Amino acid sequence: MEKITGFIWDESYFWHQTGNGALNIGSGGWIQEDTHAENPETKRRVKNLLERSRFMKELHQIEPRSATRKEIEMNHDAEYIEKISRLSDNGGGDAGEHAIVGPNTYEIALLSAGGAITATDAVMQGKVNNAYALTRPPGHHAEQGEGQGFCLFNNIAIAAKYAKATYGLKRIVIIDWDVHHGNGTESAFRNDPDVLFISVHQENIFPKNRGQVTYTGENAGEGYTVNIELPAGTGNEGYLYTFEHIIEPIINQYEPELIMISAGQDPSRFDPLGRMMMTADGFYQMAEKVKAMAEKHCDGRLVACHEGGYSTAYVPFCTIRILEAFNGKQSGVKDPFDQGFHEGPLYQNQMDAVNRVREVQAGYWRV
Ligand code: ZN
Fold this sequence. Notes:
Layout: E1 5-8, E2 20-21, E3 34-35, H1 41-52, E4 60-62, H2 69-73, H3 78-89, E5 93-94, E6 96-97, E7 100-101, H4 105-124, E8 130-133, E9 147-148, H5 155-167, E10 172-176, H6 183-189, E11 195-202, E12 225-230, H7 236-254, E13 258-263, H8 280-298, E14 302-306, H9 315-327, H10 348-361
Parallel strand pairs: 1-4, 1-8, 6-9, 8-14, 10-11, 10-13, 11-12, 13-14
Antiparallel strand pairs: 2-3, 5-7
Helix pairs in contact: 1-9, 4-5, 7-8, 7-10, 8-9
Residues 178-180, 264, 266, 307-308 line the site of zinc ion.
């Protein structure tokens, strides 16, 4: 294997149009709209930084294929798929709650879900050890029959279902570190013990009334959903504490055959939609921990799909650090925003939050 990390992207990912906005929604008619929060720049600039730093040369670039209609139907209602196709053909609209469809979005969304599948194939077939798909539109809020929170098709859920169907996997872990709860992914696997879903998110942020610590899955899937709500202000040390006390012990007991990450870089300290304090180095450390778990349990098989992250200045620096951890080489890019402060120390309220998760999860796992 020449290059260990695959990088999947397509120019059209940056052509999905979300229009104008005032942050994530309209202005209500009171303030002039500028750019929608989920605009192409955060992700285009990830690719730009990889090229500017020459780190792209260390990655195995893989062209995504489009997901087939049948693959999308593994996770979404036919009627909903049809709705996105129709909106897309007719110039755009909303496919749910803040789930913007623009002209030609349908084809781009198929290619975004296909990017997650392409990454999964590359890893499962041993073409690369691990892979990062710069998927856009993002996916983790998308429910079976409704788009939500800028998400249309649930890329990672589709790829996990594809991995089960194609490679017969029985134990997949999805770690969702986007600052928001991965409700769509949780819904997709709430009854399914074959996919252990772990969401670490800011408490009470989005969507409403989802992601509570006490929700642990249903029926055969009970005990295979782990919700970790962290207080606003949690930074590197709080996240690493969470990995050490909850995520790593549970994954060690589950012994996954594949690990996937919903990589939202919106817990960063500059994110306009989140209130966390992670630095680029914090993302590096999380990614290293996940990589080590993948090496321990499943020959390093690790697939990441990009989700949120709305700081156009900072998301690229966070994402390149994740890729460095995946690849095991350094890009030489310095975080220009690292002023040497001790960002995001561990406070008592963060430890208390982790202890609440431990109390609930102790019913299922040794934590
Ligand atoms: Zn998010």
